[in-house]
Design a protein that fits this description.
By secondary structure, this protein is an all-alpha fold. It contains 15 helices and no strands.
């Protein structure tokens, strides 16, 4: 099984209309966060179907897809790797993580990060040092910083919140809206499971939290509580 066959299948499913819509949605225009990304127009449900068909693709062939200039080919690579990491053994999870780290520059949009970081990064690091997440969080690269916080979703689902809080603190001064959204999202997920921990974090850092992150974090609070936090935070 070869990457070329998977690419051919995506080309068969491609739509110029969907490609144009995706390019706008994922901000690939001049000066936007995904400037220059190339879309051929394959919707995610079809990508997931193709990923199942090509789940036996070897790691080396997945890597070829991940290094593609075409967005859907990179997403397909990650969907296959996630599927196999979920079903595979420790050796495969290690291989997927190493593949991810040496090609992290190709994981360069929020859908690519959000699809892959929890299982491939968080899942692999669960019983290991979490220091790579700190390194990602301090990276000058927007997508690596998003990987750092989104990867902690794996730990949150297991009732482990320390790393989400730690990475959130590192990202408090981040200037990117996509980081604010991701941080607030993960804090909200913590709050669903341990509201007192979220409240403690907000009471300590609320005045420093970017407004977008705060809005995401407190989304499930009563309106009067949300308004009180919003009055006390920075704009």
């Amino acid at each position: 099984m070869k990457a070329a066959a998977a690419k051919d299948e995506l080309k068969r499913l491609a739509s110029s209309e969907v490609a144009s819509s995706s390019a706008r949605y994922f901000k690939s225009g001049p000066g936007e966060y995904s400037e220059g990304d190339i879309f051929i127009g394959v919707r995610v449900p079809m990508l997931r179907k193709v990923a199942r068909e090509f789940k036996q693709l070897p790691i080396a062939e997945i890597e070829l897809l991940l290094q593609s200039t075409i967005h859907e080919e990179r997403l397909l690579a990650l969907l296959i790797a996630v599927h196999n990491a979920m079903k595979g053994d420790d050796l495969y999870r290690q291989s997927a993580y190493e593949l991810y780290c040496r090609n992290v520059r190709h994981v360069n949009n929020w859908d690519l990060v959000d699809t892959s970081a929890p299982l491939i990064v968080g899942g692999y690091l669960h019983d290991k040092s979490r220091q790579p997440l700190v390194q990602f969080a301090k990276s000058p690269n927007l997508w690596e910083r998003r990987i750092a916080i989104i990867a902690t979703q794996y730990f949150i689902r297991l009732g482990e919140f320390e790393d989400t809080v730690k990475i959130s603190k590192i990202l408090l001064s981040d200037g990117e809206d996509l980081i604010h959204k991701a941080t607030g999202w993960m804090l909200r997920e913590v709050g669903k499971r341990d509201e007192s921990l979220l409240i403690a974090f907000l009471d300590e850092h609320g005045a420093c939290i970017p407004r977008t992150a705060l809005r995401y974090a407190i989304e499930h609070f009563p309106l009067d509580v949300r308004n009180e936090y919003l009055r006390s935070t920075r704009s």
